[in-house]
Amino acid sequence: MNEDNARFCLLAGLILLYLLCGAAIFSALEHPFELRARRLWKQQLDNFTQRYRVNLGALHTLLRQYEEANGAGIRVDVLRPRWDFSGAFYFVGTVVSTIGFGMTTPATIAGKIFLIFYGLIGCAATILFFNLFLERIITMLAYIMRWCHERRLRCAGVGVVSSREESSGEEDSLEGWKPSVYYVMLILGVASVVIACSASTLYSPMENWSYVDSLYFCFVAFSTIGFGDLVSSQRQQYESQEAYRLGNCIFILMGVCCIYSLFNVISIIIKQTLTWIVGKLVCSGRHQSCSCCRPGCRQKRLKRNTVQPISSHCPAGRHRYMDGSVETVCDSETDAGAVADGVYVGRRLSGEMISVNEFMVSNKVSLALLQKQLSETAHQGPRQSYSHQNGFSGGVGALAIMNNRLQETSVDRLHK
Amino acid sequence: MNEDNARFCLLAGLILLYLLCGAAIFSALEHPFELRARRLWKQQLDNFTQRYRVNLGALHTLLRQYEEANGAGIRVDVLRPRWDFSGAFYFVGTVVSTIGFGMTTPATIAGKIFLIFYGLIGCAATILFFNLFLERIITMLAYIMRWCHERRLRCAGVGVVSSREESSGEEDSLEGWKPSVYYVMLILGVASVVIACSASTLYSPMENWSYVDSLYFCFVAFSTIGFGDLVSSQRQQYESQEAYRLGNCIFILMGVCCIYSLFNVISIIIKQTLTWIVGKLVCSGRHQSCSCCRPGCRQKRLKRNTVQPISSHCPAGRHRYMDGSVETVCDSETDAGAVADGVYVGRRLSGEMISVNEFMVSNKVSLALLQKQLSETAHQGPRQSYSHQNGFSGGVGALAIMNNRLQETSVDRLHK
Predict the structure, then answer these.
(1) For residue A98, what is the nearest residue in chain B, using CA coordinates?
(2) A334 near A305, Cβ under 8 Å?
(3) Are A99 and A92 in contact (CB under 8 A)?
C-alpha cells in the first residue's frame, strides 16, 4: 500500500470516527426535544379531536392530504407561488448550486426526468464556476499579500533582506514567495463571517428569525447543505420585495463562493495533517525495520527512490533519531531523496512535517515566521524538485489550483 | 482583461442564461400541477370543515401545529425516530456530504450552533475525501486504459507502432500517453448509471416508489442536491432492516463519489469549450487589430509572450486565416509561442481549439482517434512546454488532479 492509499484510508477512517462522534453529540442534544415535540403534538391532536368530536381517522386523512399539498408548496399561511418565473428561477438556482432546499420540488414525471439532465450539466458548470472563482480569489489574495510582504521587507530595510537571503541560500527571498495557507484561510474565514453576519442582519428582521437562526440559515445555505427548514424569501409579500430578492440572491452567491473556497483551504490543512501522520507512521515503521536491518526494507526504499540510495543514510537517520529530533530523520531521508531522480517523497514529507510540527508545538510562532520557514525549507532543494513537490502535494482539487496559481503568479512576476 | 477573466465572465453569463432557460422550462412544466394541487387542497379542506362543522380558524391552528411537528420529524404515518443514534448518524452523513435532505434538522439553539462548527470541519474533510477518491479512480482508470491501449498497439503489430511513432515525431507513442477525457467521462457516466439503476431496483420495492421516482431520488441524493421530498430509509420498519440501511449507506456513498467525479470530468469539457470560445474571440479580435497594424496590438503581444515575437507572424496568420483554416492561424501563433519563453497561451489554445472543433464538427470521429490527435498535437512541441501547458490548462479543481495524476502515471511508468 503506497502513501497516497494510506492517506486515503486514514481519511476515510477519521471521517467515520467524526461521524460517530457527531451522531452521539447530536443525539444527546436533540433527542429530548424530539420527545417533547412528540408529546406536544399528541396533546394538540387529542385536544382538537375531543373539542370538535372529529373522527381521528378522518383527521389523519386530512393531515396526509396536507402533507401532499405541502409537497406542492402549499401552506396555511400563503407562501409565494412556487412555479411562477421568479419561483422557478430560485428553484433552478438551488439545483445548480446543489443547495437543494426542497421548498420547491418537481412533482410531474416530466419535471423529474428533465431535472436529471438539467442538473447534470448545471451542477458541472457551477462546480467549474466555483473553481474558477477560487482561482480568481487566490490570485487576487496572492497579489495583495505579496505586495504587503514586499512593502514590509522594504520597510525593514536592505540589511534584513540580505540576511534573509543569506539564510535561504542563493535564492532571492521573494523568488517563489507564496502566501501562507493559514493566512489565506484566515482571510477567507473573516470574509465568510462578515458575509454571514451582514446577511443575518438582513434576514433577521425580514423573515422574523432570531439572529442565531439567521446565522444557522446562512451556514446551511452557503455550505450548500440546504436543509430547507428555514428558507429565505418565501413569503408572499415583503417590504421592497424586489430589492430583497436581489439582495438574497447576491448574499447566497457570495456566501456559497466564499465558503466553498474556505472549505477547500481547510481541506488543504487537513491533507497536510494527514500527510504528516502518514509520514510519521512510515518514518517510525521504517526506522524499526532499518534497525533490524532486513533486506526487504532497503528493497522497498529502492523502489520508491528509483535509484540506488546512499547506503549510509539508514544508520545515520537512526543515529539522529536517537537524538530525539524527528525532523532530522526526515532531513536525512531528504538528502537521499535529493540525490535520487524519482519522486521526491522524502522531501515532501520533510517540508510538511516541519510545517505541521512547528504549527502544533507552538502557537507563539507567528504565521509569517512559519511561512518563512516553510518557504526556506522548500527552497533548500533544487528548483526542479521544488516545483515537482508542488505539483505532487498540490494534486488535490483546489489545492492544485492554489499551488499552481500561486506559483504562476511568482513566475509571471519573474518574467515581467 | 486577460483570458482567464474573460473565461470566468463568459461562464458566469452562460450559467445565468442556463438558469433563465431552466426557470422558463420548469415553470411551464410544473405551474399547471401547482394550480391543480392548490384547487385540490382547497376542496379537501372545504369538504372536511363542512362535514365535521369545524371552525376553519381552529383547523388552521392545528395545521400550523402540524407543520411545526413536521419540522421535528413527526408524521401521521410514524417514521423512524429522528434522533436516536442511527437517525443522528444518517443526519450527520447528510451534513458532511452536503446532501442535506432536511428530513432531520436540529431544533435546539445548541444543536444549531454546534452544527455550524461541526459542518465546517466535516464538509472540508469530505471535500478532501471526494478529491482523493477522484485521484484514486483516475489513477486506476489511467492504468487500465493504458494497459488496454498497450495491448491494442501490440496486437496491431510493430509496423503500426513504428508508423505511429513516425507521425508523432521523435516521441514514443506511449510516452506521455494520457487517456481521453471523453473516455473517462464515458466510463464514469456508465458507472453512475449502473449504480443509480441498481440502487433504484433496491429502493423501488422497499420504499414503494415508482422506478422513475427512485431514479430521481438517486440523482438528487448522489449529486448532493438533496431536496428531501423523497428520502430513503425513513419508515419505522423494513424487511431485513439492518441490511437495507447498510445497503442504503453504501449506495449513497458510491453514488456521491461517482457523480462528483462525473461532474468534475464534465466541468473539464465545459472548460475546454469555454477556452475554445474565448480563444476564437481573441483570435478574431487580434486578427482585426493586426490587419489595421496599430502599435498597441504588438505591445500587448509583447507583454503576453514576454519576448520579442517574430515580426512576420501577424501577416502570416492573417494570410492563413484567409484560407479559411482557423486552426492554422492558431498554429502560426503557436510557433511564436514556442519561441517565446513565457506562458504558452498560443499552444494551449491551439490544442484545445482543435479538440473541441473536431469534436463538434463531426460526431463520426471516434473518441480514440480524437484522443490520438489531441495527444499528437500536444507532442509536437518540446516536452517542457507540454508539461507547462498541462499545469496551466489543468489549473482547475479536478482537472488539475487529473492532468497531474495522469501525467504522473506515465512518468512513474517510465522510471520503473
Answers:
(1) B225
(2) no
(3) no
- Alpha-carbon distance of B143 to B405, in angstroms, equals 11
Residue-level pLDDT at A100: 94
Query: Can you tell me the distance from the alpha carbon of B225 to that of B220, in angstroms, rounded to the nearest whole number?
Result: 5
Contact B238/A at CB under 8 A? no
- Residue for cell digits 498541462? B390
Q: How far is B134 from chain A (nearest CA, A)?
A: 9
Residues pairing with B235 in the sheet? B79
Q: Predicted confidence band at A181 (pLDDT cuts at 50, 70, 90)?
A: confident
Helix (H) or strand (E) holding A289: helix A241-291
Q: What's the Cα-to-Cα distance from B392 to each of A135, B180, B312, B344, rounded to whole Å?
A: 12, 18, 27, 9
Identify whether the C-beta of residue B327 lies closer than 8 Å to the C-beta of residue B296.
Answer: no
Say which residue the cell 520508491 belongs to: A304
CB atoms B102 and A228 under 8 Å: yes
Q: For residue B247, count other CB atoms closer than 10 A to its CB.
A: 18
Q: What is the ipTM of this complex?
A: 0.73
Task: Tell me what the mean pLDDT of segment B322-330 comes to.
Answer: 32
Nearest-Cα distance to chain A for B89, in Å, is: 5
Which cell goes with A96?
445548480
Distances (CA, A) of A188 to A85, A138, A193, B26, B207: 34, 10, 9, 35, 43
Count of beta carbons in the 10 Å neighbourhood of residue B376: 17
Residue B43 has pLDDT above 60, yes or no: yes
Residue A125 has its nearest CB partner, among B18, B108, B124, at: B18
pLDDT of residue A1: 66
Q: Check: pTM over 0.90? Answer yes or no.
A: no
Strand-pairing partners, residue B79, are B235
